[in-house]
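Homework help board

Subject: predicted structure for assignment chain

Our instructor gave us this sequence and asked us to write out the predicted structure in token form, then describe one feature. I got the tokens but I'm not sure how to describe them. Can anyone check?
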Amino acid sequence: MGIVSNRLNQMTESATLAMTKKSRELKEQGIDVINLSIGEPDFNTPEFIKEAGKTAIDENYTHYPPVPGFLPLREAIVKKLKRDNGLDYQANQIVVSTGAKQSISNVFLSIVNPGEEVVIPAPYWVSYADMVMLAEGKPVLIKTDIANDFKVTPEEIRKAITDKTKAIIFSSPCNPTGTVYTKDELKEIAELMKNYPEIIIISDEIYEIINFDSQHESIAQFEEVKNQVVIVNGVSKGYAMTGWRLGFIAASKEIADACTKLQGQTTSGTNAIAQRAAITAFEADPKECKEIQDMVLAFKERRDLLISLLSEIDGFVLNTPPGAFYLFPNITAFFGKSDGNITINTATDLVLYILEKANVALVTGEAFGDANCMRLSYAASSETLTIAATRIKEACSLLK
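My token output:
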């Protein structure tokens, strides 16, 4: 009998965090590694939010906070959902957690019974499937393709649903693809899901603000499914607050109460200082905040730059994602090619080859449920992206 539990043994290490760790180790050895593997804005938290955190310390917000979050923060989130999304929630339907990652984990652990299924369009954020399995559920993957901008259709969802289906989870804007679902596309999915009122729809909207071409749309806007929807969001991406560790759910009171009960026996309430700073963040209209809009514009410019540079590499099949800060090219053209020493058979092989030959850290698409692609983050300066693309092009040119 081993020391480590079976549930942990079946869990994989986060590929994005693993590659970030590897790139840091190489940098410590003096190797000039460019890390395009991490899903983190390279911008600092806006000054007005940092000031709110400093004020919280001065005002002695240093004691245990309520498990679901301070009431003023939950009320600020309610107002944000109304202002930005046209959605009506009550404060008792909001649960604040230590990052959106914990929010999602809380939901799965609160709703999934052993053997129940969770439908996940692939590619998907790296932790979804493992979180489902940790809750003793079964991930059911729906394969999508770059030719359709990695979007899932209602018919594909319908075919994946069984009498064991407990939930479906998707992100828009999407990590790793940058895909954004339109209002009409979400309406079609809602029209399907209203026929399955017992199935929970988990809508991961953490990249909401980083949306280049359109107004963000939430599936919770459709009244026929709203009570089925769990919105997941937070401050990490849009407000450049990754280290503050604060996310939230907006859900039916039954699910919110369940997550609060679970959280009360695990982490309890989220960092009090981060909560006070988040009040200030959510009170600011992102459309009117220059620091946020400057960041979003910079990401769009970097996206266009990186697409232009990578389009020069034979074998990279690209689309133009309208959100988040990732590219997810299909790189199957390299499978079977070799530089004379190393043969590329998988996306993982190519990612490791690029790390070794070009000193650029990327993430294999296999970690996101798509073995034909790899993920590049453009949360880096234009100069850094240009150097990285040049290195990748030179390394890939050796593969024949």
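Reply (TA_rk): Your tokens look well-formed. For the description, you could write something like this. The two ends are 48 Å apart (CA to CA). That's the kind of observation they're looking for.
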